[in-house]
Amino acid sequence: MTGLGRASTVAPMRKPLSTLIALIVGFVGLGLSPALAVDERVIDVVAVTWPGAPVLPGDASEIARLINTEVSADWKKFTTLYGDTKDRTISFTTGKVLAEPIALISKMACVGVAATAFMNSIRTEAYERLGISDYSKRYLVVVAPRAGCVWSGRAQVGGVDSASGIMVLHDSAESYVITHELGHTFGLGHTNFLRCENNKNDGPWGDTCKAVEYGGTIDVMGNVSTSSPLSTYHQWRMGLLEDSQIKQIWQSEVVTLAPSDFANGVRALYVRDGKAAYWIEYRRKLDGVGYKPGLAIYRLDPPPITSIVSPNPEDTSANEFGALLGADLWMLNLDTYQYRSSTFSGGSMTGVSAATYSGNVSLSAVPSETGAVVTIKKKPDTAAPPVPVIVPVNQWRSPSMVILEPGFEDADTAITSFEAQIDGVVKALPVSDVNGWLPTYLSPFVAPKTVYLKDLPEGSYSFAIRSVDLVGNKSEWSKPEKVVIDRGRPTVTNDFAIQSINGDQLSLAWVGAKDAGSGLCQTNLVNEEGFIVQSSTAKTSPTFKLKRGSALDATAQIFDCLGNGITGQLSLTNSFIAAEKSSRTGKWSPADAGYGAGAIKCVGKCTASFSTAGRFDVLVGTGAAVVSAGSKVLATIPDSKVAKLRIGASVDAGIGKKPVRMSGSNFVLIGLASITSTLSPTKDLDRLPAISDPSLSEPKQIALAKYGFIASDFSQEWKVLPMARGTTLDDPSLDLCNGTYTSEKDRVERRQVTATKVGSVFTFLSTEVVRYSSATAAQSAQKELAKTLAKCIIDKGYTETTGTYVAYTFTDIKNQPTGLVVEGSRVLVRAQIGSGQDARQLLAFYQFNGEIFTGLYIMTPGEKGFTDLQVSSWHKVAVTMATRLSGKPA
């Protein structure tokens, strides 16, 4: 687990970056809306030291001077565009400066979670010493002496709307490092360099063409001091460039590009060529820049990790980039540019002509002071799109699911429409944007088109589909499928029947839940936290368990097999009187065990009497009987030879208790049961498509997944996915109270997932599963955890490396339920961490069995603690985790 120290605002690390300037410790999505405001921002400055540390590279007052002069001047220049009628200039000024360095207990960490934790804790400590309580709109520069880090600056990454941040200067007092790091606080990534060993200016990523981290020194997001304009890609990320000022090129045409430092006109081109994506801008001649007037071209499609050239080992061991549009870009060399390091680079990287490595696209430019006329020649797209493949019809479970397998996308342009063959008749289908689309490097501006189950017409028919691309090319028809599209929703009443009895547990069949079309496929009972407490896949009469004499309140979700559904609040209560509690005449003996405890069997003629009132069901097995009250026959129970529980009769004895008698020969009496149910008015609820978890293609992750949270544990509005680095050993598992856990080295495999939803009350809801090298290693981890907790309780917290004391206020967990692992194999925590605005509540269940550990972590913000009822609810979830840990069916 991570995050048990001070509250963290660091976004997960997407990829560790390189050596000389910035090591990005977080990533946020693109902000595509412009930020238009006059903006002067405040930067506070502190320094740190530690026992045995070298001298600082410069004092805080010198850094303050650089901020007020060089740094502020650079950002004014970057954000002041020629001809802009909107004042979007950003400047910086020094706020408060701490005169004396903050003395740390130990050396500053350089990498990983420890470095992130340091940045979070030093920020809080610094502002406490500066006497500033609200630093939500302030930046902090931390000046640190040499600590052996491979970077000169490290910053938390923000976004277009960010107005605060923290950066650490490591053995550096250079202004351009601060300027660069401030770029990260705006959400900017690095300007890197695409370098091909065959002296080509472009090529596929691989052994020949590499991604040189930081090497694109055309702007300040490389690693060379420069005041040349930001790339238009970085301007776009900052909101200084509108989407309308970017021209996406599909076919040959001529475009006039405005210079990169102009405010108006078309200022960037986007070209897709197969799986490669290009961003093109025009740079005019400016004083002090090292390039000629011409085009600057960048690749947006990221390299595989094996193609990254970086002195930082973390870069080459990072996770692969995904398809989402990232913060980084890779500059092409169109002229004489060379790069070996920050101290060995030079030459012009712009040009007036270029071609993509495929040869499908060529560009030529005629530059001028006010723009460049760019001629783009693109090989005509005459190829038909791939044949769409329909998802198997037996997997159609949601109206909102895409019915096409991946792979139908057009290689050269984009799919714009679809046609269907319905019983042989060609019809246009409705076109839908991909739901939840985020910009990708192959589709950065417009959501791709697709077909959802809800787009198909209702009825039973033969169905085939083909796609049409932007220039009118049509794919071949898909293989025809026989489909039945049902738009009707299930119907429900609050009718339940007892199906069986096992000890003190009743199995209730919801006979009032039906679907006349495709049948029921999923019925869930969900608690108020969103956890599914019971579920059934029965097509009729879904069955749920209820403890005898208890109540159940839950949100019911009922879906048919095409995902049409309804939801409502369900309340169930029950009473049960076992037959053995009756007054009896005749010869009786215990019935077969299959009928449940308390069932009795009549031999010969018998009677059994109960004092009861109201409505109830008479539960019987074999045989026949008569139900009467006084001389009035209330019901006749027909004979049965089948030895299983059945409802012999449903009876209303009226108001007020009275004797009710069952009489007959050779019959089995189980008892009287009463089920009371209420169901609020229902609402329509479509079943959502399952969220893909790519990590579950890995056998080790599949094996670990069965012990922790899985997607089906939660109501569908929740997402359960691995957290950043959650499938690696990069982050610690045990970090409670900042203890020392030597057992971390004995971890072999790890899977940590988080459960999230929009509007969740939880700041952190997660399970973690760890496989240790042996059962002995796992037990050592439990002992270390228990020892750390005991000390933390005595000390009422712990002290961080910054010297800051983090308070823990512990509360006992009462009424611990049975079902958890044994006492010596678990650690339970209920505590408040911190106080005031930094306070948060922690509920944690650490359980060990053999070489496997599972952790259940629940965190909420503020000083309001968990109620005993909430603790009890999460106890039950912890019992589920313990059951999974034991290998038994949950």
TrEMBL record:
Name of the protein: Unannotated protein
